[in-house]
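Researcher: Good morning. I'm working through a list of sequences from a screen, and I'd like to move beyond sequence-only analysis. For each chain I'm collecting a predicted structure so we can compare shapes side by side. This is the next one on the list. No need for commentary yet; just the structure.
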Amino acid sequence: MLIGGFQKFSLLEYPEKLGAVIFTRGCNFRCPYCHNPELVDVDRYSELISEESVLQFLLNRKGKLESVTVSGGEPTLQPDLLDFLLKLKDMGYAIKLDTNGSHPDVIEKLVSHKAVDYWAMDIKAPISLYSLVCGCSVNDKDILRSMNLIRQSGGDWEFRTTYFNQIMNWNDVLEIQPLLKPGDKYYLQQCNYNNTLEPIHNPHQTNLELLFSQEASTKLREKSHHYRMLNDAGKLQQIIIKMR
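Model: Good morning. Structure tokens for this chain:
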């Protein structure tokens, strides 16, 4: 495993579980707003962290930490990902995997071995804008297949979109809606412009809460009663669309 970063403690990554976060090096996407450029851009790579030291740390923290999140970069590029995740599972950790969904064959393999307990897949944009936002050619069939594999995995899952307002607008968010199905959790994330893969000139931070309250809730309710944006977790509908 090419490990480019290791966060020894997190309260945020795995829902309701204390955990560590492993960041793999390398990504096949070139999203300009990526806030982990040191994992993507060869010229900004930091020194690798040995797999042995990470596994030893996690072995020593058994019973204190509950989960391990493997993020990136794009973890499904790692040829030994399955073996690594199974080592973590053997230690008793719940495993969360962050992925861009571009390698459904890898996801299918992980699903068949029950190597992941919680999936978090990025939906970068509506299909029509995928290649533009990702900075490379993307096979939309791979994205859709990955979404379905994750739904059928037997684990928990979420889909999420980083709202990159240099390219996307609210209508683009609405175009993502048909990709979602009952049972999906879907999150909109604020774009972080502090440390990006490409320089973002004069970034304007969209107030998602304001956008959420003034535009989205009305438009989505008008479009379909199945899709509602709610802040009250006690009233979640079939599809959960929330801010993060």
